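Recall that a protein's primary structure is simply its ordered list of amino acids. Everything else, from secondary elements to tertiary packing, is in principle encoded there. The following example makes that idea concrete.
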Amino acid sequence: MACRELGSGCDQFERSLTVASNLSFVVEFVRSIPLFYCSDLETGLNESPNENLPRGDYDPLAIDDAEIKTIALVVKDINRSREFPLKVYLPNTKEPAAVVIHSHGLGGNNQTSPFLGKHWAARGYLTVFVQHPGSDDTVWKNTPLTKRMMVMRKAASGQNLDLRAGDIKALIDQLVDWNQEDAHPLYERMNLEQIGMSGHSFGALTTQYVSGQTVLGTQRYTDRRIRAAIPMSPSSPRVGDASPAFVDVSIPWMCMTGTLDVAPIGNADIASRLGVYKALPPKNKYGLVLFEAEHSVFTENKLPGDRKPRNPNHHRAILALSTAFWDTYLRGDKSAQAWLDGDGAKKSSSPTTNGKPNK
């Protein structure tokens, strides 16, 4: 297997990026001891997603062929005079399902990243994609092309981040009510003791805020009903040391980013994204860094400014590691934890060597 260990912390990883620049596909998966794995881009791209999985009892990419149904709902938050739409991916299960919430990036909507919603639902999670008015695609859709960047920058505001955090609280409150409303399509379909939170970019910031980040000296946005979090393209505070912002995080986090994960709005560079993982308390934290993955890697569409060809193995790694993380920390699945903390994650991140599956 073409693997290379690059040190015991994010500092060593940042210094190693130039060393690894000649490799075509690299994934770093870190828990308490960072590891760095690589595999050639030209291998494994046309294979089915499950073909080169490590064999064993636990397989985070295994799903059946049953169709995943979705429903559209609207949360009406009377307290804030605010409404926002949802897209809900329904699992094919009869028992109350764990819930995963996903928050889109700036200028996106609840149709973004369906590969996540479909897979998580196929794995038995009731997955709720939120759309945040004021920082969704309505911001730019009817705006002349020459003014779109200006309105997008304006939408990336503290006020909208405050609204987004309020949306998550209102959503969970609404899910509690719907779960008890016998005429509702979500009646008794959710296990609300098992809620995971995820999001990309501005949605990652939303995730950070409601999952334990300290903001202006308090955890005023934190919702204790959330049990685990996956911020995709996370960001450190713009000013000062990141440690005080994350020192009081008390739930498991899995931070995901790429070595080219920068965006034209927000000024977050790679150091800012890696800094979140580094600042988290040492227990139950995970990090995934995808080599040559750009900011759009967590979506299905390219973004303006993208330069690199898509690597399908990136989505494979995102799905495998996120699923194992949810299975471990929402369901308490010991086999998932053994996979996540052992060789399973390693092999999932390095699907092939010289065109041959890793065993």
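The chain is about 30% helix and 20% strand. The CA atoms of residues 253 and 285 lie 5 Å apart.
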